[in-house]
Amino acid sequence: MAERGDWAEIKGRRMKEPGAAEAYEATRLAYELGRTIRQMREERGWSQTNLADVAGMTQSAVARFEAGGTVPSLPVLERLAHALDADLVVEVRPRVA
Question: Residue ranges of the HTH cro/C1-type domain (predicted)?
Fold first, then answer.
């Protein structure tokens, strides 16, 4: 049986596969967005059901989003931001070298 290698080696090989870097970045972004929404919701003392009701969504959709399981559309982000009385800011910035 071939040796499996450690996580860093496996990740390095996988990240060289076509589309892997883009998929990794999309997953990271979904996780960060979900974490931010969860934090804002919890700061208000709201349950996922409370947020879902105000945003016109289902509790399960909020749960999937907060877990980073879905990459939301801009309209969904706008509904969540509005429900949380927050501004949605989307920007594209040049990378700093």
Answer: 37-92
Q: Which spans in the chain are helix H?
A: 7-15, 20-43, 48-55, 59-66, 74-83
| Residues 68 and 34: beta-carbon distance below 8 Å | yes
- CB-based contact 21:50 (threshold 8 Å): no
Domain that holds residue 67: 7-83
Q: How many domains does the chain have?
A: 1
Residue 73 lies in a domain: yes
Residue 91 has a CB neighbour count (10 Å cut-off) of 4
Residue with tokens 């960060």: 32
pLDDT, tens only, 11-44 = 777 778 777 788 888 888 889 999 999 999 999 9
Asked if residue 74 lies in contact with residue 37, where contact means CB atoms within 8 angstroms, the answer is no
